[in-house]
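Fold it.
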Amino acid sequence: MVLEKIVTIREAIRHPLWMSVIGALVSVISLFISFLVFPESIGLFTSVLVTFIMTPFMVNLLTYEAFMTELEIKKRMHQTFLKRHWDMLLIYTAFFSGMIAALSLVFIFLPDDTVQKLFEDQITEIKLIRGSFLFSSTFIKITINNIGVLLLSILFAFIFGSGAIFILSWNASVLAAAIGLTAKSFGGVGGVPVALITYLPHGVFEIAAYFLAGIAGGILSAVVAKRKTELFWVVVKDSLKIISVAVVLLIAGAIIETMLIGS
């Protein structure tokens, strides 16, 4: 794969910011290809293509992460489970931050009619979410929705290894569209700070939770694939701790989002 030649796993760990560039390039290229080949559902197929392009790299990353986790446990290195997976969390954060930034700028700078076609799926999703929250108990609805996404991230990552990339890339594209919509309503690029203030306070918690869920499901998948490992249950316990932190982050994000909607 060309991607693996450009950025290796070791280079990504040493210089995670490179993954922001990769995230921006992959998302824009995927959006362009979807526009040409899948004009009926550009938004959805953009996420599919991002997943397809990133799968080899992410599978190697998850395999490496599982190996290093076992190695550190064998050596009885006294690190917290979050510190053990910090490098991978940085890589996920850098990649999807690059994706969100690139797609937000595309949304802001392109004409409205073009944006409507490119991000039709995401805009529809945003309208459904907003409408649903207006006619329900906001905190409960947000929490249930977010935990549903969390479980899907874990399940997809466990079954497909890098399957969580699809869920994460879709949510990243929806967040980019939401930022773009808000920024445009405040005059374009000048409205970006308002958009960030609107979505980042709760978005940071939610996205971090989904990252952790993807890591937990991914390392479980990698360990199960090896079939024989004396440290299997230790890794399972590590994954459950990560998922517990993810749930706490989601609840914190839901509280902040509820306060913002109610204000």
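The chain has twelve helices and no strands.
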